[in-house]
Design brief:
Length: 320
């Protein structure tokens, strides 16, 4: 009996790829190529505003970077009129007609703060009654014992030079102004807070003004200084006058006419130094004015840190 032949397997027909599969393969290949080329990397940060020429008297409602100096002999400065915008001076100058007859209040304003969260940075503002100024129209209490209303407008000046003005910067009613890494020089007053305004100066230099920094009729956080060099101001380095309040830490008062004046003022100075001033400390404190100086040294010239009703405290002992 003959053996039965082994059946041969029937070859399966080759399936041609469908159009859908071909399209999917193409997409996957493109995606792999994009990943290898970095095309799917995170989106880069938005570019800074294009540098533009800004005219005197401009009311700014968007962030601006200057392309050239702005010289305003007619005294029409710039207004920051929209929340959160920035005026980047970009190394240029905003120059006014001069600071006026010499009175601090005279002369127009270089940059007027009229919105919340605005910033001025990176250049020089000179020749104005006030280089940077803000007023929110909030009424300060008539009774100094009553609390001041909260700040309505916040603004900052960073990495700038405010020189040759009546005021380098001023914070008036309802405005909280911060100066960081900024130089204030050659002004009648370097900067001040008045009538409910708030001024914070941090990491800055205040030099060669008539009065460096001044505050009166302000809340407890009215004038706050952190790591500030106050030097060679002809009258006072810092002046805290009627119903003012000063909170100073890490301040060097050096070679001023008077380092610190406290007149009917409250506050404290801590971890600071009085160095070679004509007079380190002057003023008058009434009953109820609480002012302390803590962990602060003074050179012999300039007199003792001594004033009636002033409390002077040594540094706290360090742990062994």
């Amino acid at each position: 009996m003959l053996p039965r032949p082994t059946p041969r397997p029937t070859p399966r027909p080759t399936r041609r790829p469908t159009r859908r599969r071909a399209r999917t393969a193409g997409v996957l290949s493109a995606a792999c190529a994009a990943l290898s080329a970095g095309a799917l990397a995170p989106t880069a940060a938005a570019a800074p505003p294009r540098a533009v020429v800004v005219p005197c008297g401009a009311v700014l409602t968007t962030s601006v970077r200057l392309a050239a100096d702005v010289v305003c002999p007619d005294g029409r400065g710039l207004t920051l009129a929209a929340d959160g915008i920035e005026l980047n001076l970009n190394g240029h100058r905003l120059t006014g007609p001069g600071r006026g007859s010499g009175a601090v209040e005279s002369g127009p304003t270089g940059v007027r703060v009229a919105a919340d969260g605005v910033v001025v940075r990176g250049g020089t503002v000179r020749g104005w009654g006030a280089a940077v100024s803000g007023r929110a129209g909030v009424t300060a209490p008539q009774d100094p014992q009553q609390p001041h209303p909260d700040a309505v407008l916040r603004a900052a000046v960073r990495d700038a030079h405010l020189e040759g003005n009546g005021h380098g910067a001023e914070a008036l009613e309802g405005v909280a102004l911060t100066l960081e890494r900024t130089r204030l020089s050659g002004n009648v007053r370097g900067a001040g807070a008045y009538g409910g305004g708030r001024l914070l100066v941090r990491g800055s230099t205040v030099e060669r003004n008539a009065t460096g920094l001044h505050a009166s009729a302000v809340p407890r956080d009215g004038l706050v200084l952190r790591d500030v060099l106050v030097r060679r101001n002809t009258s006072h380095g810092v002046s805290c006058s009627t119903d003012g309040h000063l909170d100073a830490t890490g301040v060097t008062f050096q070679r001023n006419g008077t380092g610190l004046e406290v007149f009917l003022c409250a506050g404290r100075v801590a971890d600071s130094a009085f160095v070679w001033n004509g007079r380190h400390l002057s003023g008058f404190l009434a009953t109820g004015d609480v002012f302390t100086i803590t962990c602060t040294g003074a050179t012999r010239d300039g007199g003792a840190l001594d004033l009636e009703r002033l409390t002077v405290q040594p540094c706290a002992p360090t742990a062994p």
